[in-house]
Amino acid sequence: MKKSFLIILFLAVSNFLAAQIKPWKNGNLRVSSNGHYIQTGDGHPFFWQGDTAWLLFQRLNRDEVKQYFENRKAKGFNVVQCIFYQSYNDSNAYGDSAYVDKDLTKPKHTPGNDPNDKDQYDFWDHADYIADVAEQNGIYLAIAPTWGQLVLRDKQMTKEKAKLFATHLANHFKDKPNIIWVNGGSAKPEVNTDIWETIGSTIKENDPNHLITFHPFGRMQSSTIFNDAKWLDVNMFTSGHRNYSQDNTSRKVGEDSWMYVLEDFAKSPVKPTIDGEPSYESLPQGLHDQTQPYWNAADVRRYAYWSVFAGACGHVYGQNSVRQVYKEGVNKPESGAKITFVKALDDEGAFQMQYVKNLMLSRPYFDRVNDQSLVLDNGEKYDRVLATRGKDYLMAYVYNGRDFTLKMGGISGSKVKAWWFNPKTGKAQVAGTYPNKGTVSFNPPNEKLDGNDWVLVLDDASKKFTAPGLVNK
What we know:
By secondary structure, the chain is α/β, with parallel strands linked by helices. 28% of the residues lie in helices and 20% in strands. It contains 13 helices and 20 strands.
């Protein structure tokens, strides 16, 4: 009994200490050898679990910055997407602008950085504080240098101006360990392509040690224009905020976020890809019409598991009030935001995003692929079952709790141990042992209903893996 207690105590302490190690302590992030995933410099998996706080630099004061990052750390987020300079009217919570006379070639720095002295503490000092607090909480800042609309509306934007802007920004942040660059900013890749190329290549030239991606306009992909770009490390798509009936594009992808992943992986060179802007929790379907239903926690879970099981290198969550940093009495709510930023931090889906990361990291990581051939009775839309497998395990996500049938033998082992993993709680329950041959039909717990989502996990029984979602640190 005493020996068992000591072992449990040792494991608990080891896991606690491991959790305190910042990911960059294992080296700079880089692309895995198969081109599908992200890893640390020494080869550990890095699952991009992102949150969206686009106006973080503009709207949060120092106390709110600490509150935000501590909250996100507790929920398992390791990346936060934000915009450094969204428009020429930008100022931060203290009324400071980053540039003199709204000129991107003239950064506004003041001597000193004392937060108690308004003549010293400027926009750049506050940006450094934000990056430092994120670092203390083990979180990367995924910084969009600017936004698509600024570039589109600036008739004097030239490649020379963009180069000066990007050079200074890259050099300012390049020595911080927790930076990812997000070129673009809801931009159409085929519009102002030369400007985005200049910003991307300039950042990579001045800061080669940090990853860079491109955030495109809704229902678009960076890979359509920039897949061959040497500065682009990770592809990004934005599956957008429209439901199936609201998709007015010729492609009619609708809510099928998994399709973007498969399209990106069909291109050469293969690069990791991620949904940088899926439907946000507590946002009206279609983005602006408040008479429409609002996306809920079940929807954001579905977007996450669909894209990740298709092969994405992580997932980016968004909550309507958090993404715009809505502070009651300070700024106006956009897109039907109903609750303030602070309350919205604890919206239901925010708690549940960590479970998909934990599930992926609880099994061998880099050999995982999407394999729809193992689902014998697949359906469309919400009846779709997404299957992903490694050499020794298989996972199948079902959104509505319907019965489905799998072809066995796609993984190693003569027998498989089955589990039902609950995306709402992150807990798993044993579901029996089966011969790894022929076909087997599975009946998820509870009734068939949208939002009764489950992940079936099949393990090679001889491997004796831990329960799904239980990560060995």
